Structures are given as structure tokens and as C-alpha cells.
Amino acid sequence: MFTGIVEELGEVVAVEPLDDAARLTVRGPVVTADAAHGDSIAVNGVCLTVVENRDGAFTADVMRETLQRSSLGALAVGSPVNLERAVRASDRLGGHVVLGHVDGTGQVLSKSPTEHWTVVRVALPEGLDRYVVEKGSITVDGVSLTVTAVTPDWFEVSLIPTTLALTTLGPKGPGDPVNLEVDVLAKHVEKLLAGRVPAAAPSREDRT
Hints:
The chain is mainly β. It has helices at residues 29-32, 64-69, 161-166, 184-194, 204-207, and strands at residues 8-17, 21-27, 40-43, 46-54, 57-63, 80-85, 104-113, 118-123, 137-140, 143-150, 154-159, 177-182. The chain has two domains: 8-85, Elongation Factor Tu (Ef-tu), domain 3, CATH 2.40.30; 104-193, Elongation Factor Tu (Ef-tu), domain 3 (Beta Barrel), CATH 2.40.30. It has a six-stranded antiparallel beta barrel. The chain has a six-stranded antiparallel β-barrel with strand order 7-8-11-10-9-12. It starts with 7 loop residues before the first strand and ends with a helix.
């Protein structure tokens, strides 16, 4: 589990295509400082398992499902990536509950700078809008953000200068893809409510 607070802006140093997967090597001295084989590190919001850690870089295998459901398949050597280690039970939950399980990819539609922040509008994949609410949380490329506006087709977030400078969201512009993870609590509530059987209305005899 993660919190959506990016620890480090890493860099892809190797991409090895496989038959139905890919092997990524990412440089990230901060997140690899205490990483061990089998640990989880989020890369642009995607939870990956460390299979090798050496000289400040880690290697992870990415299955076809992940390549198809996220933007990781478009990464190349030199690509910057947002990195976050899995949260400890004793850590502060600075963002929100993030699983690292991408629900789909959106596309940056516009960036509107203001004096103190930048408003970013992102297209919503079909079917995800029901989980996105104004002032709720959403994860964009692994960054926990607050939704400031939402329609069935897009949502907006406001980015402070720190987020723009220290994550991949700074250089991204219209047309660029981003990984999206909606609030998992919303999905669980939806499933629970869908399974409820409405109580039968009392018959006339029962009311007498």
C-alpha cells in the first residue's frame, strides 16, 4: 500500500522487452537505499516488485496486463518516473490509501498556470467518472491529488509548484498519458450496495 506522496523522481535506465512482459531497471537512490528482493515500489503509480537492487537502481518485471492497463509500456531509457516505497504501518498517511493498481490511463487535456498553482484537466476513461467526486482523492501517475472539478468526461486538479518541480506532472502537457487510480473505498462501497437486496414491502395482510 502507498500514500501517493512521491519520494523521488527516478529515471528509467534499461528496458528489456520480453515475449509477454518487460523488465524495467530504474535508478532511484532514495527508494533503493533500504529496498530488498520482493519489496514493492510504485513507479508512476504502478506497484512493482523488486527482483534486483544494485548500485542505486532496481529491476522489476512488468506483465502484459500492466503494460496494457497503464502507461508503463511507453517508457524508454531516460524517461523520468515518480517513485514511492510501500508505506510502513508507523508512517504518516500524507495522501490517501493508494494500492498501486491502475484503473486506466487518462490524457492531459490542458494546463492553466495561475500565480501560485497550475490547474490541470485530465480526460477520464469511460466508466471511471462515477468514482471521482469533487474534493475527493485521485492518484495521477502515483501522485495523490484532490479533485477540484469533475464532469463525466474529465476532472481537474490544482498543482502547487513543489508538485510541478518534483514529479513527472511538471513537464507533462496536453496529449500526454497519465496513470489513474480512483479511490478504492468508492469501488468497495459500490459493490457492497449492489449486493443489497431491497426489503420486500409489507403485504396488505401484514399491515392489518
